[in-house]
């Protein structure tokens, strides 16, 4: 396991804590919910998402619905401490971090690198662009998982 990783087997709360700490005073609400950090009309984008995974989620409820199936897909052992970069105007935060985990269905290792570009507005996330390697994600999935995420893509891309 890499040095500097925080261990936690609960994906969404561990991720939420890491994001809230990285955003610091840019985030003006206190919550343990990643979805609640978004503006009501916030957008989450996955520019490199493969066809079976949503590429855009519009609205806080669509983001929350998408996040519901992630713990069934992955068990995350740790996140690295993120490298944090802030724009001069404070409206954009860029994070670089890694996670180590495994696929729930296949047991295959999920070791992923992320770059997240976060745009803030009125103390909440307005836009979250999540850059990651789709080949890593596809390599851990079985056919049932790909089918389920394809169904989720059709259902969750819009609020």
TrEMBL record:
A Pfam family of this chain: SnoaL_2
SUPFAM superfamilies, A to Z: NTF2-like
Domain SnoaL-like per the UniProt entry, residue ranges: 32-128
Domain of life from the UniProt record: Bacteria
Membrane-crossing residue ranges in chain numbering: none
Protein's name in the database: SnoaL-like domain-containing protein
Originating organism: Psychrobacter aquaticus CMS 56
């Amino acid at each position: 396991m890499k040095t500097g990783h925080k261990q936690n087997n609960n994906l969404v709360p561990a991720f939420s804590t890491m994001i809230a700490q990285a955003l610091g005073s840019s985030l003006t609400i206190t919550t343990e919910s990643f979805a609640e950090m978004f503006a009501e009309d916030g957008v989450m984008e996955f520019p490199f998402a493969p066809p079976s995974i949503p590429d855009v989620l519009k609205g806080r409820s669509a983001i929350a619905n998408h996040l519901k199936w992630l713990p069934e897909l992955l068990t995350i052992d740790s996140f690295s401490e993120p490298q944090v970069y802030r724009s001069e105007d404070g409206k954009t935060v860029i994070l670089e971090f890694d996670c180590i985990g495994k696929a729930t269905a296949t047991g295959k290792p999920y070791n992923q690198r992320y770059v997240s570009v976060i745009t803030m507005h009125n103390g909440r996330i307005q836009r979250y662009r999540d850059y990651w390697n789709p080949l890593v994600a596809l390599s851990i999935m079985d056919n049932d998982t790909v089918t389920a995420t394809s169904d989720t893509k059709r259902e969750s891309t819009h609020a």
